[in-house]
Design goal:
The structure is a homodimer. Chain A has about 400 residues and is α/β, with parallel strands linked by helices. Chain A has helices at about 20-25, 40-45, 45-55, 75-85, 100-110, 120-125, 185-205, 215-235, 240-255, 265-280, 285-300, 305-315, 325-340, 355-365, 380-385; strands at about 5-15, 30-35, 60-65, 90-95, 135-140, 150-155, 160-165, 175. Chain A starts with a strand and ends with a helix. The interface of A and B includes residues 4, 7, 211, 214 and 261 of A.
């Protein structure tokens, strides 16, 4: 295990019918909030009304900015910052999933900058913002884990680069996680969210750090929770108990806890980000494509770790001398699980051919998330895109 | 799963050679600290010197109060409060294990009280303190989990009652967890600490709450981590990597996280507290005695949960129709594990006879920790003490 620091200061309110607490939770931070949301599903499922009523009851004025799209755009962030400079809210409330929360974080962090370029100086040059508008969250889909962590991932609509930024001041002050509002998610959205959760776990699982028994076990426990509950929820979308399991797992999968003391990889996310920046596919489904391909390419780096993954997570029991067969069975079952949950796992199923492999591999290397388990070159990236065909 | 709130605000600094950061970590809170510690082991193993040097380098003045004993005493808490009222430190630094941290929390919480009785009004009548001196921790033994939670357990030396108190203001501001300083612990101390950790996990594991797959898995992962690492550390006390696994597990086992969304039991702790208040046995070893006895008494409440425990945690694979055999094998392996680690698991081994069973059972019921999985009466408690003979 390697040394680390950890805290998880976000005040999490978890449970059925908790959305109406948002006014009370926001009141210490704001007399006026920017209410940030996505494409309108929050209006159809009633969450928007509950939020607005609760904020009004708490005497909090509202400035609205809806329309955040998946793979959230930098142009929206700029709009948000401009709106905040004009309207001067005291805080931001993100009502949505990872895209909305990430957009809100970028606005919160960009709000106080003067004479600096948020994109070039912070997203590209990795400077860290030190001051941000306080942020609250109502989580509408378990997936990104952005509700309690410090990171944001934004796509530049002009350059098609997808970049990330992180800072402690971006950690949400509170997060409402109400699994009963997740029942309105489609099966596809639910599955994509869980593919993202699985990917967050796997990015941490495949590490070169030795003696990380505890976090290995916690990651396996988390993977098994998704593997058990996701098919049940897809069969019965109103299974709030199952959705609660997925939601709590989604939060812990990416709030930093499960990667403490170990090096993390993140190449598969890097490979997916380039896909997403060009083809605008769903982030979770993109990961369901890239992760099995990545596994097939890198497993020889540490076959024993892949054997442990296959046996402990997927219950593979095969002749121990045939390491490769066990490893491949683990990867096969991973891919088959995504398929069973209705996700595509190959680029060819998405009508993506090899035309842009070189371009994506080039950007992949430029963006720097090239992996710690195995550090990938541009050529490696092209090979992995080929394996994903 | 049931609804909950959660945050873990303590800034944890984990890793080898981190004790010397204590001055820097304390500086934002204090120009003068009460340095609170136990019986002198911190002086023998060098931790005291490292702490004092670091505090001095940070320009922090020190008032000392050593001498905290296991099952920390209320008389020491009173001494500490008096000393703080005289010396006016800005914060308390606890250098020790659960006893020292709990003593420090009680002093921190009692410091601001005026015209109220800390013992009667807060420990006995469960009022919650709202203001406390800021507290920092250097953890010298993984066991109690007190380093990141809000609770304190104190024994009244006059009445022999062991009572607890909890409040958010008692949560430590920072906790240094340096596994390299744990190598000086004796095998017995190490094993007792881990028995406490196991008990914290089991108190949460045995629940009547349904659909708690995720926390079940996380608890099993934690149990397996102790089961794997403790014997290795006992064989090789200088195995800092193994000690790191135990330390991180000990913190997460009792910071609230693993019990979120489920009812917890705590009867075994209650039964042990009465033992500890009268016989002054080690808390962890007392739990190694009481938990198997409690299990034998209550398993019929939910045989399937005990089967899950036996199969998932201990790998019991027996004919599925014979539920009782599987359950008993799981309990047997629990007890044998404690024995293997050098702990006594029966009262008779501690020369404790049945003379005080009635008295302890009476106090057990009075103190209120009578269990949620099965709510125990005084008669039940006597029966469990008999099973522990």
């Amino acid at each position: 295990m390697i040394g680390f620091t950890y805290s998880s200061p976000t005040h999490i309110v978890f449970g059925t019918n908790t959305v109406s607490q948002v006014g009370t939770l926001m009141k210490p931070y704001a007399k006026k909030v920017l209410l940030h949301y996505g494409g309108g599903s929050v209006k159809r499922n009633g969450v928007y009304d509950t939020v607005v009523t609760s904020l009004k009851e708490a005497g909090i004025a509202i400035v609205e900015l809806g329309g955040v799209v998946p793979n959230p755009r930098y142009s929206m962030v700029e709009t948000g910052i401009e709106l905040c400079k004009k309207e001067q809210p005291d805080a931001i409330l993100a009502v949505g999933g990872g895209s909305v929360i990430d957009s809100a974080k970028a606005i919160a962090g960009g709000y106080y900058l003067e004479g600096e370029d948020l994109w070039e100086d912070y997203f590209v040059a990795h400077r860290k913002v030190t001051k941000a508008l306080p942020l609250g969250v109502v989580l509408t889909i378990p997936a990104a884990g952005s509700e309690t962590n410090s990171g944001t991932v934004i796509t530049n609509d002009v350059t098609h680069y997808k970049m990330s930024m992180g800072a402690n001041c971006l950690i949400p002050k509170f997060a409402i996680i109400d699994p009963s509002i997740h029942v309105s998610l489609s099966k596809y959205q639910t599955a994509c969210g869980c593919a993202d959760i699985i990917a967050h776990l796997l990015e941490r699982y495949f590490t070169n750090t030795k003696r990380v028994d505890y976090t290995d076990r916690l990651l396996e426990a988390s993977l098994q929770t998704v593997i058990y509950n996701l098919p049940r929820v897809l069969e019965n979308p109103n299974d709030v108990d199952g959705r609660a399991e997925l939601a709590w797992c989604g939060t812990l999968a990416h709030n930093g806890l499960l990667g403490k003391g170990r090096e993390e990889d993140w190449a598969s996310h890097g490979l997916q980000h380039e896909l997403g920046a060009i083809y605008d596919i769903n982030h979770g489904e993109g990961l369901a494509v890239m992760f099995p391909a990545w596994m097939k390419y890198v497993w020889k780096q540490d076959p024993k770790r892949f054997v442990q993954y296959a046996t402990r997570v997927w219950g593979v029991q095969m002749a121990e001398h045939d390491e490769e067969a066990i490893v491949m069975e683990g990867i096969y079952r991973t891919e088959q699980f995504f398929k069973r949950c209705g996700l595509r796992t190959r680029l060819s199923e998405m009508d993506i051919d090899d035309t842009k492999f070189e371009e994506m591999a080039e950007k992949f290397v430029f963006c720097g998330k090239t992996g710690k388990f195995v550090k990938l070159t541009k050529e490696d990236a092209v090979e992995i895109y080929r394996l994903a065909q």
